[in-house]
Amino acid sequence: MGGFWQALRALRLRVFGPAKELVGTDQFGNKYYRVPKHEARAGQIIPERRFVEAINRQAYQYETGDFPTEWEAWIRKKRKDPPTIEEILKNENYREEMKRKIKDVSEKDKLLQAKEYKEGLVAEPGHTRVKGHASAPYYGKEEPSQDPTSTASTFQPGSWMPPGSGSSHKK
């Protein structure tokens, strides 16, 4: 009877391919799977497939950071072996440490700049305000009024002409 089950398993593998293998789970609860390289019914070789079954099943609800970068690299085949929990935690601690150091350096730099401005060692940046855009016809002038120039009783359809166009049309 063992030969029957082996034949049935071989037939299932030829028809459906190998079953997915659970490779790991991340701290968010997402499950990562792989389907090993195998031969299909027609004899073609199907490469290994890697994928995730996310807790958050709606594709439109995914956001950056839903998957750890180490797992994303494994799914995209940028790394051969799946990451370990220890590796993910070590990298997360490193990223947090870098954020803290960047914040400290930024604060020190702001204090140093303020001190140099106060002592007159460095000129403070000028705060300029430009109204409009250089390509606008009113650049450097007052902006055009938003008030209507006609009322409902005096409005004539087709009577408005762009400035400088005159009443004659060249053909």
Summarize the entry for a quick read.
With 171 residues, the protein is of the alpha+beta class.
Protein model, in words:
The protein is of the alpha+beta class. About 35% of the residues lie in helices and about 10% in strands. It has helices spanning about 1-15, 70-75, 85-120, and strands at about 20-25, 30-35, 40, 45, 50-55. The strands form 2 sheets. A 3-stranded antiparallel beta sheet has the order 1-2-5, with helices on one face. The longest helix is centred in the middle third of the chain and has 35 residues, at about 85-120. The model has no long low-confidence stretch (mean pLDDT about 75).
Highlighted features:
171 residues, alpha+beta, 3-stranded antiparallel sheet, two-stranded antiparallel sheet, flat
Distance between the termini: 94 Å
Order of strands side by side in the largest beta sheet? 1-2-5
Number of strands: 5
State which percent range the strand residues make up: 5-15%
* Overall SS class: alpha+beta
**Shape type:** flat
Computed over alpha carbons, the radius of gyration is 34 Å
Q: Main sheet?
A: 3 strands, antiparallel
Mean pLDDT: 77
Stretches where pLDDT falls below 50 for ≥5 residues? none
| Portion in helices | 25-40%
Elements, N to C (H/E): HEEEEEHH
Number of helical stretches of at least 4 residues: 3
